[in-house]
Amino acid sequence: MELVSQHVKGIMEECKVRARDAGLSFDDESLEYIVTNRDLIELSPKIMIPTLYDYWVHDVKVLSGKGMYEAYPSNPYETVINTRPAISYYNDNNPDWLNVMIFYHVLGHIDFFQNNLFYKNTWEVDLTGQALADKRLIAKLRSEKGRLVDYVIEFSRGIDNLVGYYREINHIISKENLSKKNQGKINKIDYYFDIFLQQLKGVSHNTYLKEITRYNNSQKTKSNFFDPITDKYPEFEELYKKAKRSNKHYEPDIMEYIIQHSPFLKLDENKWMKTIIQIIRNTSLYFQPQIRTKIMNEGWASFWHEYLFMRDDRICGHESDFAKVNAGVTAMPKVGLNPYALGMRLFQHIEDMEDKGCYSFDYYCQKDEIKKQKYNTLKKSGTQYIFKIRANMNDFTFINRYIDQEFLTKHKLFVSGKRFNQPRMSWEYYIKSKKAEDYKKMVIDTLYHPPEIQVDAEKSVKGVLYLNHTFEEKPLKRDFIENTMIGIEYLWGGPIHLETSEPTAEGKPAASYANFWDPATPVGKTSEPKKIQWKRMRYMMENRKLHKREL
Fold first, then answer.
1. Residue 433 domain-assigned?
2. Rounded to an integer, what distance in angstroms lies between the CA atom of residue 523 and that of residue 527?
3. Are 373 and 493 in a shared domain?
């Protein structure tokens, strides 16, 4: 692995200038490396962070990657990671024209990393430097404690998908909104002047000064300062109460709760384990935004590499080469999901709709389909609009808000189904639905959504750690429950109880009916779907023995 040549770096710097002119925003510094296939295989298990801590699973994945590459060789065009400065990796045999296209794609990613609200917890972190410090610390502990270090890493990684990512983001934003002297408790006066007037209402400078003068006068006359406010802003009291509730206490996630309250970890000989658990938690929190913005992130980068490269004079003579590469990356499949293609086309669709003024009450009131197709108010604000979306949304809000019937019709999309054709003894695909709501649900179901499991402090008594799974009609995967609870029991040092919901159908496990084809059903007839009932169950882990009972 080595830095790119000065010639290639010069191409990147020129691409930065053109990208900024188009509206993208990112730091001046960036690092570009040339890597071999061997480098990529070794970096991939470490999430492309060269300084990440060593762990035996990484070695297993490296061996697996080598075998996979020998059977199915493939080279990614680029890989970029969200660090300060941003680091990106490239193949050593890319021609200059391809590097131009790739650099635009990478700059789209960096712009997204450094401006999307859901990455706020990463903006002040030097990941590569922190990872190197963590790696050295774990290596030191491994030399002292031996294999116990790997046990703690494995048990911690077993629950690192349960980190309270959204609570962490909310906590960071709440701390910024509060004055430093009143962090943790919201003073009504400070909330009114610092948050309500400035951030929520955006009042003018003169209005703000008048309110300060009125407050000073009320202090002298001993009058109630908030009486006129209630008349002028009837929503103030409710907003203030909501702010107090949201900042009343910070609920720790499972990993935080174990670090703070585990009797086992409080023992002097086990306190070192807290450091490792915190390292695993911090690493997971750092990469949570990338998991939750896959479609938006790839779509945004693809949108800009196509937009910028097609307006770059360096495409001349390579139009067909670009078309082939671009089609391979952004082709929209009829069956399956390509995040590059879906995200890019959805951004293009939103920009086009906003340019025409279609996100308006007047457009939605149109009943004539022909008039809707010709609707155009020449608003021309689509580019500014998609920049706002880039800054404030994640995959769920992006998909849920902007996939509409116009988008499906334009790209001829549909939801496909799969069924077994008994006479032909073969599987067949068919068009199941062309409705936007069905397509939207299909895409949302593919998004990353870990279970919501919290510690129930009231039931965690007599040395028991009581976990409560918030039911969302998606049961936990039973194959993972036992091993995960064994790991939590070790870190907690006592019994673990897990309350969750499991499906049943007429007294039998619902999974027995989850087949495309029921052999017991006569030809030409369809079996009626079984009604699934959900029951609360409690799993109990004690001394590495798992028990279960119905509640």
1. yes
2. 11
3. no
Is the pLDDT score of 68 beyond 70? Answer: no
Query: What are the CA-CA distances from residue 90 to residues 80, 168, 422, 443 (Å)?
Result: 9, 33, 49, 30
Q: Residue 293 — φ and ψ, nearest 5°?
A: -130, 30
Q: Which residues make beta-bridge pairs with 536?
A: 501
Contacts of 206 (CB under 8 A, 6+ apart): none
Token reading at 269: 């000989």
Pick from 475, 482, 538: which is nearest to 503 by CA? 475
CA 144 – CA 428 distance, rounded (Å): 59
This model's pTM is above 0.85: no
H-only helix segments in 357-453? 361-364, 369-374, 382-392, 395-402, 405-411, 436-445
Q: Please check whether residue 174 lies inside any domain of the structure.
A: no
Q: State the virtual CA torsion across 385, 390, 345, 361 in degrees, nearest 10.
A: -40
Please indicate, yes or no, whether residues 72 and 206 belong to a single structural domain of this protein.
no
Does the CA dihedral 125-126-128-130 come out positive or negative?
negative
SS3 387: helix
63 part of a folded domain: yes
Q: Do the Cβ atoms of 495 and 540 come closer than 8 Å? A: yes
Specify whether 427 is located in the same domain as 507.
no
Cβ neighbours for 437, distance < 8 A, ≥ 6 positions apart: none
Answer yes or no: do 266 and 362 share one domain: no
Prior bond to 85 cis, omega within 30?
yes
> What pLDDT, in 10s, does the model give residues 292-324?
999 999 999 999 999 999 999 999 998 999 999
pLDDT digit string, tens, across residues 245-275: 665 556 788 999 999 999 999 999 999 999 9
Handedness of CA 58, 61, 67, 69 (dihedral sign): negative
Question: What would the pLDDT profile of 336-346 be if each residue is shown by its tens digit?
Answer: 889 999 999 99
